[in-house]
Write a structure and sequence with these properties.
Elements lengths: L2 E4 L1 H9 L3 H7 L3 E4 H7 L5 H11 L3 E4 L14 H12 L4 E4 L3 H9 L3 E3 L1 H10 L6 H10 L6 H12 L1
Parallel strand pairs: 1-2, 1-4, 2-3, 4-5
């Protein structure tokens, strides 16, 4: 089974729509690094409080930042670097949950498996964990979380193939 590691963006997205529990339903364990934890808990927003609660109740598991040995890009944030590095150093195969395009491209260059927020939402619908993925995507957009129409169209094509 793959190690599942989440970046800050998707955690914030799932918190915005109050669906952090979907991550636990989809995966037995979701890891985040200390750097990601710091990013998502910097504010006192409702999103941050929900993520903190998910960490406290074990829905999300925080792990120490790995020593950065491979990822040296100045364009990536600290959380993104540590998430990718943790996946590279993992003895098991890893699945990264990330939305940032540059971070995704970097992870893919290192032959890592990457999935984004939208794909997980549509995957949850396919597994009948939620009833309507489009409604959750619309809710994310209303809350200013950017997911392009092209991404949604691509996901729908992949899932119908």
């Amino acid at each position: 089974m793959a190690v599942v590691i989440a970046d800050a963006g998707p955690l914030i997205a799932f918190a915005k729509i109050k669906k952090l529990d979907l991550l636990q339903q989809l995966f037995s364990e979701v890891l985040l690094t200390e750097s990601v934890k710091k990013e998502v808990l910097t504010s006192q927003s409702n999103d941050a409080l929900l993520i903190k609660e998910a960490i406290n109740n074990g829905c999300l598991k925080c792990v120490a930042d790995p020593k950065l040995e491979t990822i040296v890009s100045r364009s990536l944030g600290g959380g993104e670097k540590t998430v990718i590095e943790l996946a590279l150093q993992s003895e098991e195969s890893a699945l990264l949950i990330m939305d940032d395009l540059l971070a995704r491209k970097t992870a893919l260059r290192h032959k890592l498996n990457v999935v984004g927020t939208a794909m997980l939402i549509y995957g949850a619908e396919n597994k009948q964990l939620i009833s309507n993925a489009d409604e959750l995507i619309d809710e994310l957009r209303l809350k200013k979380y950017r997911i392009s129409k092209q991404v949604i169209e691509s996901i729908k094509r992949q899932l119908s193939a």
